[in-house]
Amino acid sequence: MNVLGNMPGLVMRLNRSGVLGLNRRNGDYIMKFNHRRYYPLVDDKVLCKIRLQEQGLAVPDLIGIVRWMRQTAQIDELLGGSNEFVIKPAHGSGGDGILIITDRKSDYFVDSDGMLVQHVDLEHHMTNVIGGLYSLGGQPDVAMIESLVHFDPAFSDLTYHGVPDIRVIVYRGYPVMAMIRLPTRQSHGKANLHRGAIGVGVDLCSGITIGGVSGNEPVSEHPDTGAAVAGFAIPHWSRIVSMAARCYEAVGLGYLGVDIVLDRDLGPLILELNARPGLNIQIANRQGLCKRLDAVDQLGTLDQTHEKRVAWACETFGEPESDLLMQAPW
Questions:
Q1: β-sheet bridge partners, residue 135
Q2: Which of 52, 65, 227, 228 would bridge 57 by S-S if both were Cys, CB 3.0 to 4.6 A apart?
Q3: 281: closest CA among 262, 298, 256?
Q4: Candidates 1.20.120.1760, 3.30.470.20, 3.40.50.300, 3.40.50.720; correct CATH number of 7-57+152-327?
Q5: Helices assigned H by DSSP within 55-198
Q6: Percent helix, strand and coil across the chain, each rounded to 5?
Q7: Which residues contact 88 (CB under 8 A, 6 or more apart)?
Q8: Which residues are CB-contacts of 257 (< 8 A; sequence separation ≥ 6)?
Q9: What is the rounded distance in angstroms from the CA atom of residue 174 to the CA atom of residue 249?
Q10: How many CB atoms lie within 10 A of CB 265?
Q11: CATH level 2 (architecture), domain 62-147
Q12: Per-residue DSSP letters for 162-188?
């Protein structure tokens, strides 16, 4: 098959489907609506957590921050008796550098794969984080220690050793598309698509899943549990999209990815924000973003409360459209 020879036809099909490409995302949306002065509020997870809390938005508890190498030897003092927690880089991306600890046995910790982790391993991991191994641009970083989120039991059949998260794209304050990312054995319990998690499209109004994708291939079942990925009603959906919409006022970015998890006891929690959200959400939803972004741009006024923005998005984007996305090479 001559891929280059078919390129013009492929481009036309993608354009008809309203697919947003990387260059247009960067030029027409990120550069235009994400002013650089607001980037630190999103790229620094510590600053972002503080800002979200100031706005009354729920986030996982912060146990401690490790800023200097000498602090890594004081891990027990930093943990304050916590036997389950997450260590992550404040300036990380794509899930790199995240270490999930689910239990403690004697002098050992237990990670999300059930492997034993020694104190020295935790110290070594934190030194790597502080040294910038996982940060954007390789700059020196700080290690955050957060409380472990326990996934809502409603997801028991749709996850493997990890917490699913919901990604909502918010454009100029309006939720425009959503998906849920389901951890798998291949992703080692992490909700990262590039590590092997499943992306599942979500109807923006009802919160009901509409189909899944693994890599570039459609999937109908979770590979580890066999459960169907479509037709699942995500709990607390109206609260989730409302929280996502409120992030527009919190950080001032016009094109934003909001990642939310459901804790079994606390409900929806904002895990992090992303100023450069990926485009695979279009594959999971079997439709492109362009038509939805254009619909927001065509509104007469954007000066609305987050409740009105959510209501408009629900009414406008609530019914999935069919197109040729899943038939086209990605």
A1: 92
A2: 52
A3: 256
A4: 3.30.470.20
A5: 75-79, 119-130
A6: 35, 25, 40
A7: 45, 97, 98, 99, 129, 143, 144, 146
A8: 167, 168, 169, 170, 273, 274, 275, 276, 277, 278
A9: 11
A10: 7
A11: 2-Layer Sandwich (3.30)
A12: S--EEEEEEETTEEEEEEEEE--TTTT
The number of residues making up the chain comes to 330
Beta sheet of 165-171, edge-to-edge order? 217-219, 209-214, 198-202, 174-182, 165-171, 255-263, 267-274
Per-residue pLDDT for the chain (330 aa), expressed as one digit of tens each? 444 455 455 455 666 668 999 999 999 999 999 999 999 889 999 999 999 999 999 999 999 999 999 999 888 888 888 899 999 999 987 778 999 999 998 889 999 888 999 999 999 999 999 999 998 778 899 999 999 999 899 999 999 888 999 999 999 999 999 999 999 999 888 888 888 899 999 999 999 999 899 988 889 999 999 999 999 999 999 999 999 999 999 999 999 999 999 999 999 999 999 999 999 999 999 999 999 999 999 997 777 899 999 999 999 998 644 443 343 333
User: Do 38 and 252 form a contact (C-beta atoms < 8 A)?
Assistant: yes
Using alpha carbons, list the distances in angstroms from residue 89 to 82, 111, 238, 247: 19, 17, 30, 21
The structure tokens listed for 195 are 């590590």
CB 190 within 8 A of CB 162: yes
What is the location of CATH 3.30.1490 in the chain?
Answer: 62-147
Give the residue from 282, 273, 95, 269 showing the smallest Cα distance to 179.
282
